[in-house]
């Protein structure tokens, strides 16, 4: 059995691009219920935009195997302002734009910035853990490290939010004291396109957040 101490966490940097893009392609998108349901196959454009954006904000983290230096998990985060709006046309792939629309709709319904009484928040965008490294609480550790990073005075950020797209990710956020603000049931949102998302573990998206 692999020891948890075999994995360490550090800040994401530019040289990690290829490993993180590969992790998203091989572990995140194939296992993510929505992307699997609508059969997303083209991920390079989205990965390129997201990774480069998160590197520049300097608050994303990777977990790596201390013996091989291979990245086995990533938490991609952005610092987002109240007046920032994500445009669906940022990527050309229609399926990824559809997912963006779902996330935008759940965010707009609650108005998370007002809920957390903040003008700027940490947005925990994507957490991906390689199959070989699951069972070591890496997702929760990456969330904790992200909060620890932006809670420093230099960032002047006092809250975070995320869209947990299944119960497994929701439980990771609960461990870090996130509260559920709202939820969106996939089949209610689109009964045709998301018809297969009926398993109670994967049937809804949760908007979660917390102050710190």
From TrEMBL:
It catalyses: serotonin + octadecanoyl-CoA = N-octadecanoyl-serotonin + CoA + H(+); serotonin + hexadecanoyl-CoA = N-hexadecanoyl-serotonin + CoA + H(+); serotonin + (5Z,8Z,11Z,14Z)-eicosatetraenoyl-CoA = N-[(5Z,8Z,11Z,14Z)-eicosatetraenoyl]-serotonin + CoA + H(+); serotonin + (9Z)-octadecenoyl-CoA = N-(9Z-octadecenoyl)-serotonin + CoA + H(+). Its EC number is 2.3.1.87. Keywords: Transferase. GO terms for molecular function: aralkylamine N-acetyltransferase activity. Transmembrane segments: none annotated. InterPro entries: Acyl_CoA_acyltransferase. Gene3D superfamilies: 3.40.630.30. Belongs to the acetyltransferase family. AANAT subfamily. This is aralkylamine N-acetyltransferase. It comes from Rotaria socialis.
């Amino acid at each position: 059995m692999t020891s948890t101490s075999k994995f360490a966490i550090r800040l994401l940097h530019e040289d990690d691009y290829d490993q993180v893009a590969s992790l998203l392609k091989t572990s995140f998108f194939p296992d993510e219920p929505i992307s699997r349901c609508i059969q997303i196959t083209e991920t390079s454009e989205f990965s390129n935009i997201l990774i480069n954006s998160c590197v520049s904000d300097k608050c994303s983290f990777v977990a790596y195997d201390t013996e091989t230096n291979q990245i086995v998990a990533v938490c991609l985060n952005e610092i987002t302002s109240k007046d920032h709006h994500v445009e669906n046309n940022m990527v050309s792939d229609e399926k990824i734009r559809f997912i963006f629309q779902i996330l935008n709709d759940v965010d707009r319904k609650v108005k998370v910035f007002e809920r957390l009484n903040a003008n700027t928040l940490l947005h925990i965008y994507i957490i991906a853990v390689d199959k070989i490294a699951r069972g070591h609480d890496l997702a929760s550790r990456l969330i904790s490290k992200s909060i620890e990073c932006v809670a420093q005075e230099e960032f002047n950020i006092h809250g975070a939010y995320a869209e947990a797209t299944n119960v497994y990710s929701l439980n990771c956020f609960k461990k870090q004291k996130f509260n559920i603000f709202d939820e969106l049931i996939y089949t209610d949102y689109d009964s045709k396109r998301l018809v297969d998302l009926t398993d109670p573990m994967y049937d809804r998206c949760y908007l979660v957040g917390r102050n710190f």
